[in-house]
Amino acid sequence: MTRTAALTPDQVPAESKPTLEAFTKNIGFTPNMLAAFAQSPIAFNAWASLLGNLSKALDVKTRDSIGLAVSEVNGCNYCLTVHSFTAQHMAKLPADEIILARKGHATDPKRDAALQFARKVVESRGQVSDADLTAVREAGYTDANVMEIVALVAMYSLTNFFNNVFDPEKDFPAVAPAGAI
Question: What InterPro entries is this protein classified in (predicted)?
């Protein structure tokens, strides 16, 4: 059940309009999550800035896979629909890789290490072990890359929490519940 309304274009605060219009132009429509999030220009524009900067971190397959892993842990069905769609259509991940990513794994060893680490970060609230940090470093990630993984976990958790609190109407294709994968 939706807990906040998606804004119509004439209801969007002036400070949110340019950001929302840019997303709409880029995506081809206005997702309900963005139309709801735009109610707070401060939160919406801060998140959009973070998203824009982190779109340069790592590669698209790893970013989308981290989004899937984090959204699965946080139980965000809206984000799972979005990340499943983008993983398939933008990152070109096959269906079996999308399922693996939701479980915190990948067939590519380096990406697998990033996903296992991201999952441990969110599950432990950042209290990872020395062995966890060593494993992601040994897979070929620099400390700067590890910081980017942590930032991606935080960014995806932000939208997970937003969507879990406000439950916007889903406007991406549904995905199977975690128990079915």
Answer: AhpD-like, AhpD_core, CMD-like, Uncharacterised_peroxidase-rel
Q: Is 72 helix (H, G, I), strand (E, B) or coil?
A: helix
How many whole angstroms separate alpha carbon 23 and alpha carbon 34? Answer: 8
On whether the CB atoms of residues 106 and 97 are closer than 8 A, the answer is yes
Looking at residue 107, its pLDDT comes to 97
Phi first, then psi: give them for residue 4, nearest 5 degrees.
-150, 150
69 to each of 29, 39, 139, 146, 161, how far by Cα in Å? 25, 27, 18, 16, 14
Return d(Cα 28, Cα 85) in angstroms, integer.
14
Question: pTM value?
Answer: 0.94
Contact criterion met (CB below 8 Å) for 104 and 116:
yes
CATH architecture designation of domain 60-180: Up-down Bundle (1.20)
Largest pairwise CA distance in the chain: 52
